[in-house]
Amino acid sequence: MAPPKGRARFQEDLKAAAEKDIANVSGMNKGDAENEFVFIFGHPLLPTPSGIEIRIQPQDIGGYPNENSFLAYTNSDVPANIGRELEESMYKTTGMKVEGMLSDLIRRLRATLEGNEAEAKTDSVISDADASDFDEDEPYDSNEDVPFTYDDDPFDLGVHYVENSTAQAKGIISPYILERARRDLHSVLRGGFRAGKINGFEFTTDHSIVSTSVRVSKLGLSEETREAWKLASSDYIVLLIQYEGCYSSFEDIIQRATGLSGIKFRLRKCSRRKPSLQQALAAFSPDSSRKSSSLKIPTAQPDDPVPKNLELSHFWIGESIDNLMNGEFIPMMKLRHRLGGSWDSAKERYSKFLKSAASAMSNSEDGVVLTEEEKEVPSNGAQIPTFLTADHLVSGGEISFPLVATQFVMHYLVRCSNYCMICHQKVEGNFESLKPYVCGDPLCLFQYMSLGLGPSIDHEIINQPYVVDLLISFCYASVCGSRFGKASLREFPRGLNLQVPKIRTKIEPDSPLSPRSIAIMGGVLIEPICVDIDWDASTATIVGDYNEHDLREGRWIILSTNLVTLSEDSNSEAQSVLHHARIEWKYNSLLQFRVVSRHTMPMTEVDDEALISSGSECNIRGQLVLCDQDLDELDNEEKAFSMEILLCTLPSVMDMRSHLMSNPFAQLAKWDRMTPAAMGLLRWIVASNRSYIVQVDERPDANENSLESKLGRQHERISGVDGWMQFRFAQGSPEKEALFNEALELVNKPQRSLVAWHGSPLENWHSIIRQGLNYTVTANGRSFGDGVYFSRDFDYSLGYTGGGILRNWSNAHVWPQSALKVGAAISLNELVNLPENFQNSASFFVVQHCHWIQCRYLFIKPRHQEEEVSGGTRPTSDAVSRKAKKDKGHESEVAEFIQDLKWVTTGPSRSALYIPEIAIPSAQYGRKTSTASLNKAAREHHLDSSDDDEDDIRFIFNPKADDNQASKPYHVGDLPPTPTQQEPQTDFRPGTLDFSSLPQLAPPSYATEIAQRTLGKEIKKLQQTQSTTPLHELGWYIYFERMNNMFQWIVELHSFDPSLPLAQDMKAAGVTSIILEIRFLRHFPISPPFIRVVRPRFLPFMNGGGGHVTVGGAMCMELLTNTGWSPANSIENVLFQVRMAISSTDPQPARLEKAYKNSTQQYGVTEAVQAYTRAANAHGWEVPMDLHEATTQMPDVSD
User: Fold this and answer.
1) pTM for the model
2) 505: left (phi > 0), else alpha (psi -120 to 50), else beta?
3) What separation in angstroms does the CA of 818 have from each of 371, 657, 749?
4) At what angle do helices 442-450 and 676-687 cross, to 10 degrees?
5) Is beta strand 1048-1054 parallel, antiparallel or unpaired with respect to 1036-1038?
6) 859 secondary structure, DSSP code
7) Residue 1091 and residue 1112: Cα distance in Å, rounded?
8) pLDDT by residue (tens digit) across 68-118?
């Protein structure tokens, strides 16, 4: 990301330019690439009457405007001279602001078309707006960009200009650079991530690229979080790092000016551990856009193959993190390296520096004293996977820049809901936000919404139309409630420049400052203009002096007329009709308009023909008001009223979806039925939703071929709540979910969680899905103390929805265009099963700890279902349950969540609930995965490219670069002798093992050079460790002199803690060690080693055994599968981990099978491989594809 000030200044200038009338320019809009914008250039001499689309891409947004230039190009066929002028813009627009650049470019294009080549070839004229940018005497304003020359920068953040030293001549890369790159990438592997080179390590190029990655399943994200963030567990999160020229070390980057580091980042998701060269280059190209993430196709099902062009793709959170990494990561890293502290404190310091330049950074070499808040104490760090909490930057020793960047970006990703997506400052009180959002700064909200940095509204409407319908319905009910004096809407859109109609609910008539107004039914028109309307011609004639009014082409207006009805009551007040329109052209008093939407005031369901036939055949007298009132300037009641009017102008969600699906290039923002203000409000409604909501089942009137049947997830449906439509509903950051799971660990009961209902009036749900279930606002009193109130009785909670009895529901809060016609909403929530610790648990639950609550389902009652429910047309619970099981396709019945019998929650009229186990994540903890799920998991886990892996391992480990090593492979015969005998401290005696009963294998035919060299180095290190460490402390022993095949090792584990049941069994059986066999596979160190127990035999887990030893003797450890293995793992560490696993008493300790009799009976290799494969599949771990080869390509040569 560009520095915030430069980027913010560009966006403000772009917004200002878009609002101005520039000759020959129309249709200015956001482009596909980051910071790109497009416009239509029109001219009579162009070959295409409709004009040409020109795309503008700033080249240095951080240095805008002084150091920036603009790339201008078009995809249209244009005359050669026009193409030349566009190409030369790169050199002619340096230092210009947006408006000045546009004026200069249009001037040159006009001159070229009109034959005035002399004018076209003159130097670009700097406009008045741009002249100040070159005034060196202009005083510095701390609110402007950081100046590009700042000699007193105490932290050397690199904002001064220096010559770029990263570009290197074409030729051979320095061996020093290559060796440093190898060490840095090796550190990434040791840190638990994947690493690889992509470009620029064979010979010098313009750019070098490396990649680091981690599989999504290892990030510790819940299923709801992954789905909300559009991530599959089998995806990889890939960080691409591009260096200008050759690879740069951490020290190089620290010494270089920040703005000239020559480093760019891209965070993407990928179906493989690293992308291809072409995909990586495309990610960094100027045309890199969000096209892949905004394809207008329904979301693919989990089993659908991933198209090749989507192997590397955007995910919407990644774009925000790209901005952070490219704009602020390197200065933050420099601050941490110099001053210490946490990443959050470094971010705070850098933000202060940008705001006040030198004054906020007076402490330079002396450092600063960190407060407790600034020290590196990650929020809930224990809940984040350990490898993500490591901090290589402060670990000491040589620092690997790729590892520092990877640790930061992955840790930030899993905690991103705690930060603003624009300014990236920490957002307090964002605990209930499952999706990241923005802080309270209106500028951040403007950038997030208006510049398209939030989720794609078009994509949401296509893939989840009923969820969007639900969100709009909740907002409509909330603004209606706020308009009638209830504090339903807790936050309003700010800073979005929403221009609303000049219509109010009331006005003070006696005030001398009150504007001229006319009262209509349901509101007051402010400063209305009397007009005569001709509907057939779509024209309006101003009555009176037309020069008094600022009515220009392109302005949005409201035409107000009266609706004539056939009511018998002649004294009844005429209902008003509001016609939302845009002025197409104006000539004196005559206006031509285009109506985009009509509705009544107050809103009722009236036939559209009746809305325009009120009055005479063609002409009708009406009132015109402008839509030029900034929503931010109104009080909350008037804001709610104006938002209600905007929502009434929206087409139905199904109409929006039909429009988007009708044309692959259709965009909702360009649809002529959408007013700009209504579109802005719709963006805010959808993008500000911080909960996870996804449709579960279809409406009762849906058929098998309907949209709902394709988008629904019937297998997750809860039966027993007939007549209510269901949505999966989750709230809370990953941090809150982790705290919830931690609280479940405190429960020592068969059922660790309870379920309960929470009902609330319809107008409250807009705020609930954004701020969570909490008790900051009291609506119905707190007779039983502070906390969130829940009931196990559905009917009791229904009473708090404001609906209660169906016939009393009102139309007032129902969005007229809704397909759902939501009348009431109620949620089903999972609670920690500790009611004895609740604030109250007598008649109902009052839970005072918000992290003991997790929303799971949202039930809504469509109003049109009342007759269907009373008539009994809804399928019964049992029928729905059977249908769910059939739809799921399981071979056996769907598993049911078993409730705690002491606290059973019931459905309507106290009917029994059938809750599928899949609905309650905690219920699946520790259970074995079904066969169908295993097959699905196996399909999801794609094998990595072995060729790519081997190429990277060859580079990182570089076997030919070892000191004192010849180019020939390392031979076993080169090993030093076994260490001298040590004084025994336990009953283990080295050198007493009888090898005649053990498998002794011949070297495999697949022994590769890289594997031999890697094993040679491992053997050398292990021999050194074994010879210098007391054996009883080491715990393992290897017979190096008996090692005739370096791909097969025999290892003894010994000297276990005497208090362990395993040690006691070994002593009783006369066994002094556990004998392991280690076999190394073809692709080692890419593939993990296969480790099994040879003897003694262990008690199987199903019979009460443990120690992570399978029934066949293989070790059951994720570390020893492709999923958990890293090529950076040392065998010494592997032996330590295996010994710790065997010694573990969780969930139960290891025991020997028939300790006093058959403990010396050996495991066979075949049963070990079979058991290993079963265990890996059960956990969803990936089995090495070369495992079978290791059991067949090394024949046993023992006597």
Assistant:
1) 0.65
2) alpha
3) 52, 13, 44
4) 100
5) antiparallel
6) E
7) 12
8) 888 888 888 788 888 888 877 777 888 889 988 998 899 888 888 877 544
Strands (DSSP E) contained in 509-605 are: 517-520, 523-526, 529-534, 539-542, 556-563, 575-587, 590-601
The SS3 of residue 1034 is: helix
H-run or E-run covering 1094: strand 1090-1095
Helix (H) or strand (E) holding 318: helix 316-324
Tell me if 814 sits within 8 A of 822, measured CB to CB.
yes
Q: Are 133 and 66 in contact (CB under 8 A)?
A: yes
**DSSP assignment of 724-768:** -EEEEEE-S-HHHHHHHHHHHTT--SSS-EEEEEEE--GGGHHHH
d(CA 675, CA 658): 18
Instruction: Give backbone dihedrals phi and psi of 862, rounded to 5 degrees, phi first.
Output: -70, 135
Which residues on neighbouring strands pair with residue 728, listed in sequence order? 694, 857
Residue 245 phi, psi (nearest 5): 80, -135
What pLDDT is stored for residue 75 in this prediction?
A: 80
Measured between alpha carbons, how far is 1188 from 1183 in angstroms, rounded to an integer?
10
**Within its chain, how far is the Cα of 443 from the centroid?**
22
Contact (Cβ atoms closer than 8 angstroms) between residue 263 and residue 253: yes
Q: In the beta sheet, which residues pair with residue 582?
A: 556, 594
Distances (CA, A) of 165 to 257, 313, 1021: 10, 32, 40
Nearest to 754 by CA among 588, 886, 900: 900
DSSP string, 115-184: T-HHHHHSPPPPPHHHHGGG-TTSPP-TTSPPPS--TT-TT--S-S---------SSPPPHHHHHHHHHH
Q: How far is CA 373 from CA 342, 366, 421, 669, 736, in A?
A: 9, 20, 22, 44, 20
CA torsion through residues 283, 287, 293, 295, sign: negative
Token pair for 17:
């330019």
Q: Rounded to 5 degrees, what are φ and ψ at 1174?
A: -60, -45
Residue 1081's identity, in one-letter code, is L
Name residue, tokens 């993190």. 321
DSSP state of 505: S
Q: What is the chain's alpha carbon radius of gyration, rounded to the nearest angstrom?
A: 35
Q: Can you list the residues of the chain whose pLDDT is less than 50?
A: 1-2, 117-170, 289-309, 357-382, 566-568, 570, 614-616, 804-809, 866-892, 926-947, 961-970, 980, 1156
For residues 401 and 407, give the distance between their C-alpha atoms in angstroms, rounded to a whole number.
10
Q: Beta-carbon neighbour count of residue 108 at 10 Å?
A: 22
Q: Nearest CA to 959 among 1133, 1084, 1044?
A: 1084
Report the candidate in 69, 89, 80 with the shortest Cα–Cα distance to residue 113: 80
User: Dihedral angle at the C-alpha atoms of 1025, 1027, 1031, 1036, nearest 10 degrees?
Assistant: 50
Residue of 863, 761, 859, 858 lying closest to 802 (CA atoms): 761
DSSP of 395-455, one letter per residue?
A: S-SS--HHHHHHHHHHHHHHTGGGBBTTT--B-TT-TT-SS-B--S-HHHHHHHHHTT-S-
Give 1156's Cβ-side CA count (13 Å radius).
1
Between CA 370 and CA 545 the distance in angstroms is 68
pLDDT tens figures, 522-540: 889 999 999 999 998 999 9
